[in-house]
Amino acid sequence: MxxxxxxxxxxxxxxxxTGATNHITHDVNSLSNVEQQHNIPPFQIHDGxxxxxxxxxxxxxxxxxxxxxxxxxxxxxxxxxSVSKLTRxxxxxxxxxxxxxxxxxxxxxxxxxxxxxxxxxxxxxPIKGGKALTARNTISANTWHLRLGHLPVNRISLIPDLSxxxxxxxxxxxxxxxxxxxTRLSFPxxxxxxxxxxxxxxxxxxxxxxxxxxxxxxxFLTIVDDFSRATWVFLMTHKSETKxxxxxxxxxxxxxxxxxxxxxxxxxxxxxxxxxLMSYYSDHGMEHQTSCTDTPQQNGVVERKHRHLLxxxxxxxxxxxxxxxxxxxxxxxxxxxxxxxxxxTLKDRTPYEILLGKKPTYEHLRNFGCLCYGHVNSKxxxxxxxxxxxxxxxxxxxxxxxxxxxxxESKRIYVSRDVQFLExxxxxxxxxxxxxxxxxxxxxxxGNIPLSTDLCTDPVEEPVMESxxxxxxxxxxxxxCSESDESTPTVENQQAATLPSKRQRQVSRFLSGYQYVxxxxxxxVENNTPPxxxxxxxxxxxxxxxxxxxxxxxxxxRQSTADYSLFTFTHGGSFVAVLVYxxxxxxxxxxxxxxxxxxxxxxxxxHIKNLGKLKYFLGIEVARSPAGIFLSQRxxxxxxxxxxxxxxxxxxxxxxxxxHKLSNESGEICKKSxxxxxxxxxxxxxxxxxxxxxxxxxxxxLGSSPVSWRAKKQTVVSRSSAEAEYxxxxxxxxxxxxLKQLLQDLEVSCTTPVSLFCDNRAAIHIAANPVFHERTxxxxxxxxxxxxxxxxxxxxxxxxxxxxxxxxxxxKALGHDRFHQLLGKxxxxxxxxxx
Length: 835
Prior knowledge:
Blueprint: E1 14-17, E2 24-25, E3 32-35, E4 43-44, E5 50-51, E6 54-60, E7 66-72, E8 80-82, H1 83-90, E9 92-96, E10 100-105, E11 111-118, E12 121-124, E13 139-140, H2 141-147, H3 153-156, E14 164-165, H4 175-181, E15 200-206, E16 219-225, E17 231-236, H5 242-257, E18 263-266, H6 275-283, E19 287-290, H7 300-320, H8 327-338, H9 351-356, E20 371-375, E21 388-395, E22 403-407, E23 413-416, E24 419-422, H10 430-433, E25 495-498, H11 504-507, E26 514-517, H12 539-553, E27 558-559, E28 566-571, E29 574-581, E30 584-589, H13 592-606, E31 609-613, E32 616-617, E33 620-625, E34 628-632, H14 634-643, E35 678-684, E36 695-702, E37 705-713, H15 721-745, E38 754-758, H16 761-768, H17 785-791, E39 795-799, H18 808-811, H19 816-825, E40 828-830
Parallel strand pairs: 1-8, 2-7, 13-14, 15-18, 18-19, 38-39
Antiparallel strand pairs: 1-12, 3-6, 4-5, 6-7, 9-10, 10-11, 11-12, 15-16, 16-17, 20-21, 20-24, 21-22, 22-23, 25-34, 25-40, 26-30, 26-31, 27-28, 28-29, 29-30, 32-33, 33-34, 35-36, 36-37
Helix pairs in contact: 4-7, 7-8, 15-16
Protein name: Integrase catalytic domain-containing protein
GO molecular function, one term: metal ion binding
GO biological process, one term: DNA integration
């Protein structure tokens, strides 16, 4: 046994002694089950004095560390723990290191106790109150503070059996709580309360909020039970849905609790006084109480609950830096957590406990908005496919034991129980929004309180986590540029329109085009703004263009009247087309021999440079695949981004927020916005908030492939939506007539009337009726040429629903779902292989 020079008694620490045969303690009063034994011989302490001994049945130092037959010697100075007796009684092993030691179960290796070295001795410190030293890994109060929706630390201490170690005075400062929960001093509260659940409920509607939630909701209905303060939240698109949710809730209470609600308190909103609801109140003897006008304090229970919900919801959103359209998920999760929070009005009990008669569990809670990985249950399963996919944790489902996960790849919300969480990582960072590892396999307890009936899995928006230029190109696409032209770019990453196979009969003659560059001596003076036709160039350009035109006309080529840059040659079954722009020339056709003769002829005249197959022309990249030809303007877009200094920006899934209007205060308005569209026309009436002018959008298809599209502000202010649509029809028909002339030059005949789809019946009637009308007399005469082409059956106007109007994508900012729905119908596909 080790000796010491001091004579005073030690603290309650136990010295681990390999030389002692029994456990010995001097603190008899702190021990339990003390029995005086007279047959035990006296004990001689270190100073030679003989003292009596008390036999102790048991002393508990931890949950699994229990000492039997401890000898109590009040005059002894130390608490000694015998290693031999401890290993024999507890069937354990002790492992000593330089500064500490551990006690473990011999078979399971489970940790029983831990001690440290002090002054050359190994001490085991007991836990006050008889609790285990190391029963399980503790989690910091700050982590539980985040998991529980920023619940105050003093409230966390009220939750029993929570693995948490904290000091309320030493918890870290949380600025999210101040930003989310700062409020004015409250009014005095009424102390009148009911005696049991569902005697009296409080209801109110919050909203409308300016931004739609993921599922397009602007409101939420809140129901609070007066006795238990249990809260139910239902997201709503319109206030008219209140009746449906209230009736569902009444039936749920009757079925689950065999009770009928006796009183309902609301404000004076008409949605609570619907005819069907009033009939239900009367049939079931329910009293409907309403607050006075402009007196929300009379419905203070639900008003304060709204404040509590929004405080927690804001904290959840700020914590994860989520986009604002996640506000609905934040509110639903806030309601779920509030039902499990101890409330002072309930004497520090939870609504869940009062309503259901059992305490809630907390082990399944995780940090809202954190990164997680959901297990993939794909069928049939690919042996080399990923076994998990990344997502964002966005809440707890109703009626399912799992987690709601926002899939970053498929843009959907799904429910899964096989999820692993990285609670310290949030995919949405402050820089990407312009604002601002612990793994578990346990199942959550979703409980029986319905928080929402909205569990659909529609596609939603996702954060972009990769740069533009990192996506690989599909191996089926042949891309690249001529090795001899250093200025011609390569295709790395773009979206292009696919040429469908059913149109290949008409366009197959153009699939073998070649590109040529004329020598510098014949090239015009460089101009940073390319002209729309060669006649608009400088004198050198005009001289070159005239010389090139004369050379082609001399060998039988015909110049197009629709586009003076296009030259065609037709002889028998042979067809050759030449397109020239400044010093770039494209040659294509059906007769390879005649194309070779033309190349030789041009080479003798101008000394041309052969660049091979067409791959890049006027900012358009050309790629080939078995599915057809892909056209892309990726390099053109990247050049614009480089000029604006935005090369490092992240891509967006759709160009503008829904219902967003451009203004001078928001930045410079784009003069032109071009998107793929076809023989569909549309107009956004008075869409410009400054000039109140309308926007025309159209798209024209050749078969299934878009060949012309436009979005442009109209030159005059329209007095009605019909007039704006009528002007859009006139602009579209002008483009159709020009395209028909161009197709005739390319030996493509258009004998049937072109179908022009418009979603405004009034505009269609104006176009079909040539009779003078009071409402159309101010419209310019040139717009009325629509009627001439309708009568000559060149154009056939047809009505279409707004939902099927493809040109809608050109006239206004659309939401994510609508934008990608129309994008798919326009024939847009990607050049990138799946990653």
